[in-house]
Design a protein that fits this description.
Rossmann fold; 11 helices; 38% helix; globular; five-stranded parallel sheet; four-stranded parallel sheet; alpha/beta
Length: 315
């Protein structure tokens, strides 16, 4: 596996391989010495054209725990702000010896362009591109859900028959897209709920059911997981709903809605959370919430992604 650009490109065997390698990586993180020599001598560049906290820090920790050298490159304050193109930036990084580039970019498709351009020989890992995809977030979400469902017997297991409800700003969410494709590939049944204005055009081609009434969705189906999405106001040029109060009332995971969830159902959120808007604090802080687990599992999952792309999966 040279690049990791999209979960839509992953077949079941490859997805399970990544998740199982992430299990191996997670096991190493329970040791007193967490660092592995796997990528010693390799250089990983975190090339971020958008602000990020969780994803960038998670990739940095993952690369360092695999003994890679890490360069963090933020577009703000760099030559990019002076007009330098993605091609020239990438070729500069290639010239200084980058073996892997972790790219976050506001333009959908930018990682695929970089990987297929011939500009560089380095592996490319998509850390989020526009409203397109965020594959490692979906992988860590699935890793977390698989562990909650199968426990210590997670290795090699898929999510056949697991029911997942994804709620909120589907239109702007690369996390939702990546999760839809990955969860479906692993056998899960995915439902989406959000305001009509925040459901993307062409969603009829996705392997999902779609609704707009959250209370009806929660009443009709006993979901195993409810994933709340952040409302991405920074990507909204127009008003997609009348007010924050109306959004929270209709599509937020309020305390009352949390109480009607099946006892076994877990609550997920990719972060950052807007408490009291998308999700009530009681739900976010409940033992049934996986929010902190998702952050912790992100390191192991990204260790797996870097290992498989930079080594080709060689044992």
């Amino acid at each position: 596996m040279k690049h990791l650009l999209s979960t839509r490109d992953l077949d079941r065997a490859t997805a399970l391989q990544i998740l199982d390698v992430a299990e191996d990586m997670a096991a190493t993180q329970q040791r007193e010495v967490k660092k592995l020599p796997t990528l010693r001598g390799k250089t990983v560049v975190n090339l971020f054209f958008e602000d990020s906290t969780r994803t960038r820090i998670s990739f940095e920790a993952a690369a360092k725990r695999l003994s890679a050298d890490v360069i963090n490159f933020a577009a703000k304050g760099s030559s990019v702000s002076k007009g330098e193109s993605l091609q020239d930036t990438a070729q500069t990084l290639e010239a200084i010896g980058a073996d892997g580039i972790v790219l976050r970019h506001p333009a959908s498709g930018a990682p695929a362009v970089l990987a297929g351009s011939g500009w560089i020989a380095a592996s490319v890992v998509n850390a989020g591109d526009g409203t397109h995809e965020h594959p490692t977030q979906a992988l860590l979400d699935t890793f977390t859900l698989r562990r909650r469902i199968h426990g210590d017997g997670s290795r090699g297991r898929d999510l056949d028959g697991v029911r997942v409800l994804i709620v909120g700003d589907i239109l702007h969410s690369r996390v939702a897209r990546s999760n839809v494709w990955l969860l479906s590939t692993l056998g899960a049944q995915v439902s989406l709920v959000g305001p009509p204005t925040l459901v993307p055009f062409g969603i009829g081609d996705w392997p999902v059911t779609v609704g707009h009434d959250l209370d009806a969705a929660l009443a009709d189906t006993a979901f195993d997981a409810v994933m709340m999405l952040r409302v991405q106001t920074e990507r909204m040029a127009d008003a997609f709903f009348p007010s924050s109060r109306e959004y929270s009332s209709n599509w937020g995971l309020t305390a009352a809605r949390f109480m009607v969830l099946p006892e076994h159902a877990v609550v997920m959120h990719p972060g950052p959370m807007n408490r009291g808007f998308e999700i009530a604090s009681g739900a976010a802080d409940s033992p049934r919430s996986t929010v902190r687990e998702q952050v912790a599992n992100g390191v192991a999952t990204r260790m797996a992604a870097l290992y498989l792309t930079l080594t080709g999966g060689a044992q």
